[in-house]
Every structure is written in structure tokens, then in C-alpha cells.
Amino acid sequence: MAMTSRVAVVGAGISGLATAHELRCAGVEAVVLEAGDRAGGKIDSTRIGGVSVDTGPDGFVARDTAAAQLCRRLGLGSELVSPASRGAFVWVNGRLRPLPARSVLGVPWTADALRGTGIVSQAAANRLAVGLAQSTDPLPGDASVGEALRPRVGDEVFERLIDPLLGGINAGSADEMSIEACAPRLYEAVRTAGPLGAALEQVAASQGGDGHPRSPPPVFQSVRGGVTRIVDALADELGDTVSLSTPVQSLRRAASSGDRRWRMTTADGDVDADGVVLACPAWEAARLLEPLAPEAAEILGEIEYSDVVMAVFAIPSARLTRPLDGSGFLVPRNQGLLTTACSWASAKWRHYHHDDLAVLRVSAGRTDDRRWLDLSEDDLITTLASELAETSMISAPDATQRRFEVRITPWLRSLPQYRPGHRQRVAAVDACLAAETPGLVATGAALRGVGLPACIHAARQAATAVTGST
User: Fold this and answer.
1) Are residues 277 and 425 in the same domain?
2) Could you tell me the pTM of the whole model?
3) If residue 412 lies in a helix (H) or strand (E), which one and from where to where?
4) Mean pLDDT split into 10-residue runs, the chain, 470 residues
5) C-alpha atoms less than 13 angstroms from C-alpha of 249 in its C-beta half-sphere
6) Which of 218, 225, 314, 446 is at a distance of 20 to 30 A from 344, taking alpha carbons?
């Protein structure tokens, strides 16, 4: 591809910014068109208690090095940090109970890890022991996480461990999630012939996370000061090639633009480019593609998103009723709370530590639980604060008197839901675009993973694909 070639990237979330970065590193001119008034997409922060706190993702999986590598390229390598606390809890039957260490995405590979914890009944632990030891046929293809694991581990373990963890990450129901796309490590285990327990232990060992007490590597990483620093660094590097408040109204093949093959119409005028990367939400990509590649547009338009909310609390440390001796806790849906998870941010990350304040990030909302949308901001704060008291985090009087700071960040249509067969549908989108719109590719969280490393990997693939097809 010639050095003067030009690619337009639609969307300035992490996927779009990382794509533009990759193109720039390859010597290709990139222009980024963002409909919103800031870059970063679902990566953002708020100022509270004297510190800047992430209101979207606050870290990324360390096992996949893509995000850490990008940080080093951006000059943030020395700023990479690991969690200051290990371990997490689950709220079950009126108590916070430690999650078992020896597990893969919430699935223990030994029933002894659950006995006596109070997370599940003795009968459920016995049921799990049978399921882990029993040889089963390997899963022949993709399925929902529930379809693949409920028969193997039992309903109680599934609903109190697996669904809170995967449902919390994706703000959905594990009974409806693709195990191949949402939980590839579990997918690897259930595709192995033989006992599930042995397969899980093998998967954990291969990833360096066998749960033994010999200082296992950290699961997550972040950047000192918060994940938002990554998108800030990308935006600073890209400079005025990023155009904010510039929604793309239409996309079409350019009829008379010299060597340019694509034309995007915006309120500020037309933008011509040799190639296009759609790094915007799936419904927006579907709108732009409908006249060009209707089959791909239909697939993208059917991707469901969840609505969630993040409430950041800055609470005087003296008001806490228990130590922050972990990274936070999960709440199973059958426990009746609006809260889905609470991250003890000031204990989890040293850059949020404050001698006099505890920073807590409280999440609510799932695809099948939209109650928070019916509450005013005051009522939402009151409800979540009351649940912090109910879960023994703060005293009840402080929950009602609200002697603390709170920042509310709603994330509407924020987390795409991967249903069984998701990867096959994404492959169909790729094939449609390659055949019908050469020089145009799609990427982003709706397609190949919601975490930062997955989005960055996909951005690299998109940059390679668009330059190879123009």
C-alpha cells in the first residue's frame, strides 16, 4: 500500500483509536470520525475524593499481553501496575463469602474448594464432585454456558458462582452466552474428553493460574492513574486526525474522487478514503452498511446490548464496617439485590488509595434486569447505598444520610451480548464485507471480545485487513 494511502476509521473508542495507531505505525494516513464529543468510548473517568477514578473498565487481563504492549508503545510501560489485593467475595445468604481460589471463571475443579464455605449447600457440593469426576462426551460445538455447564456442575454452583462472574463481566445471563466467545477457557475444558475437573485443572495450569499458594501471577493489570490514560495517550498521539462531534451520516462508494474509493458524508462535508474501518457500535455499523452489504448489516443489527450503570462512592474510611481485604464482591441474581458487583477500588489499585476515603465502584444492570432505568438518580443512589449497608460495607445511618460523595455514570447499550454461534456470525460478516465491500472492514467490541486486549488484537487485524485490501 502506498505511503499516501488514506483510511477512515469510524469511531474513537479503544478499537478505533488502536486501529488508527496501528495504521499510523505502518505509515498509513488515518482519519478518525467520532460522533461523540470525546474519545474513548466506554473508557472514561470521573473526579471524586481528590482522585480520578475509572467509570468504565479499570483494568485488563494480564495473561493477554496486547494491552500491556500497547502501553509500552505509548510510553506508559513504566506506569503498568498490578492489583494491590488478591481474592474476591460473593454475597450469598446474607454474608460475603470468599470465592474459591482454584477455579476457572468461577468453576472449581475440586468440590473441596466449596465445602464449608456457605456458598452452596452440602448437597450441591456433592453434586459438583460427581460432575467433576464423571467422564462426559466433549462438547461438539458452540453452546450457551448454561447448556454446557449446568448438567456438569449443577444449578446451585452455576447460579451462585458461574453466572455472577460471567454475568457480571458481560452484564447478561450465562444461560444465554456463547461459551466459545464469552468463556474460551471453559470452552477448551468442555471440549476435552474425560472428567471435567481434570480438564479444568489442566486449562488453569496451562495459563499459569493453577490456584496454588506459590505466588501465582496477577490476573489483571492497569495503568497508574487509571485505564483512561491509555485512550488519552492514543488521542494525544493521533492529534487533529481525530475529529470529534462528527457523526457519519452516510457511507458510499466514491464515484469521482481520483484514487479514493469511499466517501463518508458528515455535517462538516465529505471525507474520502481508500479504505474504511467501522469501529463503531454494531447498530451504527449496520445502519451504514445496509445499502452496501445488507446481509452483514442484518447480522450486526441483531446484536443485543445491555444497559448498565456505574456508581462511584467515596466514603470516609471511618464509616466502613469491614476491612477491604480483597478486590470486591459479586452478587448472584437470585440474592435479590439491584447491585451486581462492588469493586473495592481503593484496596484493589494503589493509585486510588486514600488514607481517609474508601473508593467503591458499584455496578447495576443486566440484560434481564433493567430496574435501575426506572429510578431517579437520587433513588438509585439511595438504593445502592442501602445495599452497601445490607452487605455489611457501611453502617445503615450513613447509607440513609448520604454523608459521602457519589458519581453516577449510566452506560446505555454498552456491553454487546454474544449468543451461541457468535463467532460463526462474525465470520459471515467478514465474508460478506470481503465479497461486497472490499476495502471496508468492521471491528470493535461487538465482534471479537469486550476486553481491552481483545479490542486491541482486533484493531491490529483490522488495520492489516484494510491495508491488504486497498
Assistant:
1) yes
2) 0.93
3) strand 405-416
4) 74 98 96 97 95 96 94 97 93 95 89 94 96 91 96 96 93 96 94 92 75 62 97 97 98 73 95 97 98 98 97 94 95 96 96 91 96 97 96 74 85 97 98 96 96 96 86
5) 7
6) 446
CA–CA separation, 266 and 270 (whole Å): 6
Q: What pLDDT, on a 0 to 100 scale, did the predictor assign at position 208?
A: 60
Q: Are residues 402 and 422 in the same domain?
A: no
CATH number at residue 298: 3.50.50.60
Phi and psi of 305, rounded to 5°?
Answer: -120, 150
Quick check: 191 and 138 in contact, CB under 8 A?
yes
Domain edge (last residue) among 156, 171, 206: 206
Domain that holds residue 32: 6-41+232-303+418-468
Contact 65, 57 (CB under 8 A): no
Q: Is residue 49 part of a domain?
A: no
Q: Which three cell numbers stand for residue 233?
A: 495517550
Say what the pLDDT of residue 468 is.
85
Q: Which neighbouring-strand residues pair with 308?
A: 411
Residue type, 194: G
Asked whether the CA dihedral 378, 383, 386, 391 is positive or negative, the reply is negative
Q: Which amino acid is at 247?
A: P
Do 263 and 174 share a structural domain?
Answer: no
Distances (CA, A) of 42 to 55, 231, 414, 440, 441: 8, 10, 7, 24, 21
Number of domains in the chain: 3
Phi/psi region, residue 410 (left: phi>0; alpha: psi -120 to 50; beta: rest), is: beta
Same domain flag for 272 and 404: no
**One domain for residues 325 and 454:** no
Is 50 domain-assigned? no
Is position 364 within any domain? yes
CATH number of the CATH domain containing 327: 3.90.660.20
Q: Sign (positive/negative) of CA torsion 221, 227, 231, 236?
A: negative
Cα–Cα distance list, 310 to 171, 381, 410, 454 (Å): 12, 11, 6, 22
Q: How many CB atoms within 10 Å of residue 255?
A: 6
